[in-house]
Amino acid sequence: MSQQHFLIIHGLGGSGHDHWQTWLADTLTENNYPVSYPTFSTFDAPNLTVWLKELHQAMETIPANSELTVITHSLGSLLWLHYGAATTKKLAKRVILVAPPSPTITLKEAPSFFPVPLNSSHLSRTAEEILFIHSNNDPYCNMEDAGNYLNLDHPSVVLPNAGHINPASGYGKWPSILDLSLTHKIPILN
Fold it and tell me: 19, 171, 23, 78: which is closest to 6 by C-alpha?
């Protein structure tokens, strides 16, 4: 039987000690789940080529027989989309992409991440289950731009008034993402 393993991928600026990703990593670890939570180089001015290499190195450390769940935030979601576009094999059991930034507005801090590969078949190859989590008032991705992700034929959840789903919008401790990560069921998120 394969063991559950979690890979948490931060976005621009990393995820500090008060971010839900750090809380999730700590909580999973405290409950004896293996967690990979790499810190990518120059996270305030990221380079896609470097981050792809570092993500590949992190993926290489995860046992091949693991039931992998990948949880991304913001620019980490775009990193996963690029990583998935470059492979033809299944990489994970589940992928949860939280608050991906607009694929149509290049981030000045991360121009190498654009254009974003938005191809449903590439994405489908990477995991058995894929879920997008958006906010209806995300300053980095309005609902019109989020439609680019909604059109990829994978489930999406839209949180009301959740901002960028980060500590600034009240997402430090986030029990719903823990439940989602462990149960594989889409709960009512808040």
Answer: 23
